Amino acid sequence: MAGVHVYDRFLRQDKLPHIWCSGCGNGIVTNALIRAIEKTGIDQNQIVVVAGVGCSSRANGYLDFCGLHTNHGRPLAYATGVKMANPKLHVIVVTGDGDSASIGGNHFIHACRRNLDITTVIYNNDNYGMTGGQYSPTTPTGAKSKTTVYGNIDTPFDLCKLASAAGATFVARSTVYHVTQLADLIAKGIEHKGFSVIEAMSCCPTLYGRLNKLGDGPAMLQRFKDQAIPVQKARQLSEEALQDKIVTGVFTDRKDRPEYSDQYQHVIARAEGRE
Ligand code: SF4
């Protein structure tokens, strides 16, 4: 039918047009998430999308699923409550680099540790977009932001290494240039039974891109194309050779750890004397 898009059923039409800047990568990540959900074939009514605060978390307002738009840094705490209350639901968290790794950093590492069956999609644009372009825990060393005008002297987190080390059982990364791969990885994360983290390298041309002279949205996409290197190839290179690269693919895919809500059923059974 004319004027109807195949993904319209996943979007709240009354909330459009969206607020994102021209050239922002957030729409691409959100599109990849919709593609991934469609690919899994999971009933739309069985999905809950939980967001924190930030430009990325605004995605929750546009996605037509049951959802919660929560406090800054706290989506994983709310998502944990939803999943524990009804383990049959598929819970997806949409969050940013600041929301997940700074304000919500403690929630993040403990969610990884627990291995509750939640999928977390991190829109990583290397800065706090919504609050004006302050530096975040993933801002590269030397990069400029509103709060590092002479260059960032911090060492950024590698969010995938952090997630894997903290115990997440599925961890992957792609970029907004590699849309098909990104959607595939998110789908794998949703289908994985356990805590999954998919880092989506996204672009913020309005703030991070402008302050670091990286050009407009298409120019930043081109950079992702040039910087990306598959994890299998990266394993053969030195740390120096990987300096400005973005390693993509699956880093962790473990099936050896029990899922938290399953474990909790045993606790209930023991409390009731059934085990
Ligand atoms: S400020 Fe940056 S992250 Fe936020 S909508 Fe604009 S381009 Fe996107």
UniProtKB/TrEMBL annotation:
Boundaries of every Thiamine pyrophosphate enzyme TPP-binding domain copy: 53-199
CDD domains for the chain: TPP_OGFOR
Record bears the keyword Cytoplasm: no
Protein name, per record: 2-oxoacid:ferredoxin oxidoreductase subunit beta
One of the Pfam families matching this protein, by short name: TPP_enzyme_C
Keywords assigned by UniProt, alphabetized: Oxidoreductase
